[in-house]
Specification:
Oligomer: single chain
Function: Removes the formyl group from the N-terminal Met of newly synthesized proteins. Requires at least a dipeptide for an efficient rate of reaction. N-terminal L-methionine is a prerequisite for activity but the enzyme has broad specificity at other positions.
Organism: Streptococcus ferus
Strand content: 15-25%
Bound molecules: zinc ion
Helix content: 10-25%
Largest sheet: 5 strands, antiparallel
Order of helices and strands: HHHEEEEEEEHE
Number of strands: 8
CATH superfamily: Peptide deformylase
EC number: 3.5.1.88
Number of helices: 4
CATH architecture: Alpha-Beta Complex
Strand order of the largest sheet: 1-2-3-6-7
Cofactor: Fe(2+)
Distance between the termini: 44 Å
Shape: globular
Radius of gyration: 17 Å
Protein name: Peptide deformylase
Length: 204
């Protein structure tokens, strides 16, 4: 059975055993565009990817399924070399620990996502980045665009354009990189991992 057939079976829940790790050549391949109109299989895969992220962020489900928490997943990480990404970015609780009005700052499956414009200014997360396909800590500033405009096809097959900044922009760029065979540590300065170029926006 093909990987996509297995992962899109009704009873299948994506877990860490479905995620390939660094060293697997699929993570270094440039993924193929998803054919349009979207197939049911590609739509279901997107739903399964989003469900994985939801489970990974739910302490009970994550413990039961032994999931590392994640905010993004790209199809190549499942050994499927297609341009599909899912992002699920929760909003923080308020200062009193109440749940946010809107649960998520960003919750989307994007088919054929493409950065069509970006800021001159770069940004990096203060604490660096991690990846479900990388079972080690790699320290350093991951230099990305501070703001991006992304075109993509949504789960209903509609063309969409979204402007992103801050943490959302970082996560989406990390996932789009996976569809181009790029790992987050490729964007860390190897000579001086913590070196901040002038004008760099540090996101806490
Ligand atoms: Zn990753």
């Amino acid at each position: 059975m093909s990987v996509i057939k297995k992962l899109t079976q009704a009873s299948h829940l994506i877990d860490m055993t479905d995620i390939i790790r660094e060293g697997n050549p699929t993570l270094r391949a440039v993924a193929k565009d998803v054919a349009l109109p979207l197939t049911d299989e590609d739509i279901v895969l997107g739903e399964k990817m989003l469900q994985f992220l939801k489970n990974s962020q739910d302490p009970v489900a994550a413990e039961k399924m032994s999931l590392r928490p994640g905010v993004g997943l790209a199809a190549p990480q499942l050994d499927i070399s297609k341009r599909i990404i899912a992002v699920l970015i929760p909003n923080p609780e308020d200062e009193e620990g109440n749940p946010p009005k809107e649960a998520y700052a960003l919750a989307k499956v994007m088919y054929n996502p493409k950065i069509v414009a970006h800021s001159v200014q770069d940004a990096a997360l203060a604490d660096g980045e991690g990846c479900l396909s990388v079972d080690r800590t790699v320290e350093g500033l991951v230099i990305r665009h501070a703001r991006v405009t992304v075109d993509y096809i949504d789960k209903d097959g509609q063309k969409q354009r979204i402007k992103l900044k801050g943490y959302n922009a970082i996560v989406v760029q990390h996932e789009i990189d996976h569809t181009n065979g790029v790992m987050f540590y490729d964007r860390i300065n190897p000579e001086n991992p913590m070196a901040a170029p002038e004008g760099l926006l540090i996101i806490e």
